[in-house]
Amino acid sequence: MKASTLFVAAISAVGMVSASPVAENESTHQLEARETRSSQGWYSYGCYMDCYNGMNRFLPHVAYWNNPANDPDTCIAACQDAGYTYAGLQWGVQCFCGNSLNGSPPTASTDCFERCTGSADHAGAHCGGACRNNIWSAFEKPGH
Fold first, then answer.
1. pTM of the entire structure?
2. Is the CB of residue 99 less than 8 Å from the CB of residue 110?
3. Is the separation of the CB atoms in 93 and 70 below 8 Å?
4. 135 pairs with which residues across the strands?
5. How far is the C-alpha of 91 from the C-alpha of 133, rounded, in Å?
6. How far is residue 109's CA from residue 88's CA, in Å, rounded to a whole number?
7. Using CA atoms, how far apart are residues 29 and 70, in angstroms rounded to an integer?
8. In this predicted model, what pLDDT tens digit does every residue of 9-62 receive, in sequence order?
9. Are 134 and 113 a contacting pair, CB within 8 Å?
10. Which of 11, 37, 95, 131 is buried most, with the most CB atoms less than 10 Å from its CB?
């Protein structure tokens, strides 16, 4: 096959890609990758480490420890109402808040494996993991 024919075939295939919402039977991982803004306008920062080390957490304020209705909007609202600019969802049911990341290192997105159990609007979204927060902030992530 000629190079020009391959180029036309590749362009045609790209043209078939749709920007429509993810269908219900598609992977929730694809849905998560697209969810970068909350309904409150906060920005997703991704997965960050945050573990109690005997002294403090990177996000020190505990909004709640065990909320089976946890999702980004619920955690963000709790942090925003308490006057904080960062929200971290951990272990699927926990929410922590702060006004900076205090040096919290980013980790692989696969470390935030727990799924949110809250509203259908966030079905399949990630809500942290073991010592891992899915971070949301009122500020756009630097460099994005």
1. 0.71
2. no
3. yes
4. 46, 88
5. 8
6. 14
7. 18
8. 333 333 333 333 333 333 333 333 335 767 778 999 999 999 877 667 899 999
9. no
10. 95
Q: Residue 59's CB: how many other CB atoms inside 10 A?
A: 26
In angstroms, rounded to a whole number, what is the distance separating the alpha carbons of residues 94 and 128? Answer: 9
Amino acid at 41: G
Query: Of 111, 4, 97, 2, nearest to 48 (Cα)?
Result: 111
Higher pLDDT, 25 or 131: 131
Cα(61)–Cα(126) distance, rounded to whole angstroms? Answer: 20
Can you give the three-state secondary structure of 41-67, one letter per residue? CCEEEEEEECCCCCCCCCCCEEEECCC
Would you tell me how many other CB atoms lie within 10 Å of the CB of residue 130? Answer: 11
Q: Which residues pair with 137 in a beta bridge?
A: 43, 86
Domain ranges in the chain?
42-144
Give the model's pLDDT for residue 35. 54
Neighbouring residues of 106: CB distance < 8 A, sequence distance ≥ 6: 45, 46, 47, 48, 49
Q: The tokens 């990630």 sit on which residue?
A: 126
Side-chain half-sphere exposure of 105, counting CA atoms within 13 A: 4
